[in-house]
Design goal:
Helices cover 0% and strands 6% of the residues. The protein has no helices and two strands.
């Protein structure tokens, strides 16, 4: 499976690479409501909170600029 190109403008992250590319093995995206919550973080998927699910009302509810609401 080919991985998508992930762009990132946070140049002081250890996963940032020139050209604004993210080279992290796992990408965790949250809604803005959790921005100040003490959520686990780390470099492996086992360290992320993957048990909860949220819904975003639109792109402004996330820090993910590529967010598009899924239609069923």
């Amino acid at each position: 499976m080919e991985h998508p190109m992930v762009k990132c403008s946070v140049a002081n992250c250890q996963h940032w690479e020139s050209g604004n590319n993210c080279v992290a093995e796992t990408i965790m995206i949250e809604i803005n409501t959790h921005a100040n919550s003490p959520l686990p973080q780390g470099s492996g998927s086992g360290k992320y909170d993957t048990k909860h699910q949220d819904s975003a009302g639109g792109v402004t509810d996330t820090c993910c600029h590529t967010f598009q609401e899924r239609t069923h």
